[in-house]
Amino acid sequence: MTSAPWASPGVRRFVFGGYAGLLFMMTHWPKVAIPAEGRWDLPVHAGVFGAWAVLFISTAPFGPARSPRNIARCVPVALIYACLDEGLQAIPLVRRVAAWDDLAANITGILIASLIAWRFRSESKA
Q: pLDDT tens-digit profile of 73-102?
């Protein structure tokens, strides 16, 4: 007997879509001021983009979710999205700040999450 996945593919895609939409809205809401000292937000960037990567991998766009092929192909997509997300914040209309350290934190989160996903990948029986 095989165990059922934690959620159907449709549910996983719905959750990812909602999360991705919310993240995009939060990272592009005009002129947000964060009244705090230091760069405490960098671990938040890593966690948020790591979660984005895990949810994207779970949607299985390139094969079974835990397959090496799916994970390997999702990583560059996640990295490109992180670059676009940070870069779009530099548009004057958005009135946000695009920062290299934010992008580095985004990439770090994606890579850590992807390595964890890789650790739990399914092995081919072929």
A: 999 999 999 999 999 999 998 888 899 999
DSSP H or E segment with residue 102: helix 100-119
Coil, helix or strand at residue 13 = helix
Single-letter amino acid code for the residue at 113:
A
Residue 13 maps to a domain: no
Distance CA 39, CA 59 (A): 32
Distances (CA, A) of 47 to 23, 63, 114, 126: 12, 25, 12, 35
Q: State pTM to two decimals.
A: 0.87
Contacts of 124 (CB under 8 A, 6+ apart): 67, 68
Would residue 96 count as lying in a domain? yes
Contact 67, 84 (CB under 8 A): no
Q: Number of folded domains in the chain? A: 1
